[in-house]
């Protein structure tokens, strides 16, 4: 009788938490059956089923309580100030399911686009000789640090400082003073200004 | 006079190339454009050099076109059949059409209606000759 019941319970209840409970019921019911040896099989079956349900429900309730938290004896926060400030809550990072743009935008203001052409006017020539500076016409959307980077990338020279102005015809002129270890005249020759 | 403008960069030739090759060609073309522009300012070259500027600009455009087209093609192949695609890979049509119900959503019927249609279909009768 005993082993037969155990197998039945084991097969019927697949829940893990019932495993220890089931074994206890098995042993309990085993005891019962040993007492009532001559009893009908139907009576013992009903008992085990009821007991199983009860054990299952108590286990389930315990689990639920742990998950929910006991609402009757909840710890209440003590507010010592009259103001309530919004508490910090969890802020999740975005995990987009798809990129909005398939291809990221390409940088339209790269160093080729920044420096349009160098100036070769008389005053520009004077600057090259006297002040070690090169004069460029530059994209109007470029700023001084960008111009510095572009000059470095294109002509391989370091700029000490960049001064810019916007001409009356709408173009930006950049005076790029080179560092002392560069010679503006050499660079100009290299570029092709002369 | 002998026309010294460069050999034409053809799109069909470009499509066979690898992306890094195309990038390199793009860099070269842009450098060339830069030197041509300097030449324009310094007054060297003459008509041939000045004419070359246009060719180089259009070649750069062609390289960029081919680069972009192949990238887009590959991406479309990558996202083919996926549920969520980037918005520029979805069909464009019009804003209103995109917001319409799909044919499947339109064809959804009440269970009551389905049963009625099954139980009482449109009958056709004919008079026996």
Automatic annotation (TrEMBL), chain A:
<comment type="similarity">
    <text>Belongs to the universal ribosomal protein uL23 family.</text>
</comment>
<feature type="region of interest" description="Disordered">
    <location>
        <begin position="1"/>
        <end position="43"/>
    </location>
</feature>
<keyword id="KW-0699">rRNA-binding</keyword>
<dbReference type="InterPro" id="IPR019985">
    <property type="entry name" value="Ribosomal_uL23"/>
</dbReference>
<dbReference type="InterPro" id="IPR013025">
    <property type="entry name" value="Ribosomal_uL23-like"/>
</dbReference>
<dbReference type="GO" id="GO:0005840">
    <property type="term" value="C:ribosome"/>
</dbReference>
<keyword id="KW-0689">Ribosomal protein</keyword>
<keyword id="KW-0687">Ribonucleoprotein</keyword>
<feature type="domain" description="Large ribosomal subunit protein uL23 N-terminal">
    <location>
        <begin position="56"/>
        <end position="105"/>
    </location>
</feature>
<protein>
    <recommendedName>
        <fullName>Large ribosomal subunit protein uL23 N-terminal domain-containing protein</fullName>
    </recommendedName>
</protein>
<dbReference type="Pfam" id="PF03939">
    <property type="entry name" value="Ribosomal_L23eN"/>
</dbReference>
<dbReference type="GO" id="GO:1990904">
    <property type="term" value="C:ribonucleoprotein complex"/>
</dbReference>
<dbReference type="GO" id="GO:0019843">
    <property type="term" value="F:rRNA binding"/>
</dbReference>
<dbReference type="InterPro" id="IPR005633">
    <property type="entry name" value="Ribosomal_uL23_N"/>
</dbReference>
<dbReference type="GO" id="GO:0003735">
    <property type="term" value="F:structural constituent of ribosome"/>
</dbReference>
<feature type="compositionally biased region" description="Basic and acidic residues">
    <location>
        <begin position="1"/>
        <end position="19"/>
    </location>
</feature>
<dbReference type="InterPro" id="IPR001014">
    <property type="entry name" value="Ribosomal_uL23_CS"/>
</dbReference>
<dbReference type="InterPro" id="IPR012677">
    <property type="entry name" value="Nucleotide-bd_a/b_plait_sf"/>
</dbReference>
<keyword id="KW-0694">RNA-binding</keyword>
<dbReference type="InterPro" id="IPR012678">
    <property type="entry name" value="Ribosomal_uL23/eL15/eS24_sf"/>
</dbReference>
<feature type="compositionally biased region" description="Low complexity">
    <location>
        <begin position="20"/>
        <end position="43"/>
    </location>
</feature>
<dbReference type="Pfam" id="PF00276">
    <property type="entry name" value="Ribosomal_L23"/>
</dbReference>
From TrEMBL, chain B:
<dbReference type="InterPro" id="IPR018254">
    <property type="entry name" value="Ribosomal_uL29_CS"/>
</dbReference>
<dbReference type="InterPro" id="IPR001854">
    <property type="entry name" value="Ribosomal_uL29"/>
</dbReference>
<dbReference type="Pfam" id="PF00831">
    <property type="entry name" value="Ribosomal_L29"/>
</dbReference>
<dbReference type="InterPro" id="IPR045059">
    <property type="entry name" value="Ribosomal_uL29_euk"/>
</dbReference>
<keyword id="KW-0687">Ribonucleoprotein</keyword>
<dbReference type="GO" id="GO:0003735">
    <property type="term" value="F:structural constituent of ribosome"/>
</dbReference>
<dbReference type="GO" id="GO:0003729">
    <property type="term" value="F:mRNA binding"/>
</dbReference>
<keyword id="KW-0689">Ribosomal protein</keyword>
<dbReference type="GO" id="GO:0000463">
    <property type="term" value="P:maturation of LSU-rRNA from tricistronic rRNA transcript (SSU-rRNA, 5.8S rRNA, LSU-rRNA)"/>
</dbReference>
<protein>
    <recommendedName>
        <fullName>Large ribosomal subunit protein uL29</fullName>
    </recommendedName>
</protein>
<dbReference type="GO" id="GO:0022625">
    <property type="term" value="C:cytosolic large ribosomal subunit"/>
</dbReference>
<comment type="similarity">
    <text>Belongs to the universal ribosomal protein uL29 family.</text>
</comment>
<dbReference type="GO" id="GO:0006412">
    <property type="term" value="P:translation"/>
</dbReference>
<dbReference type="InterPro" id="IPR036049">
    <property type="entry name" value="Ribosomal_uL29_sf"/>
</dbReference>
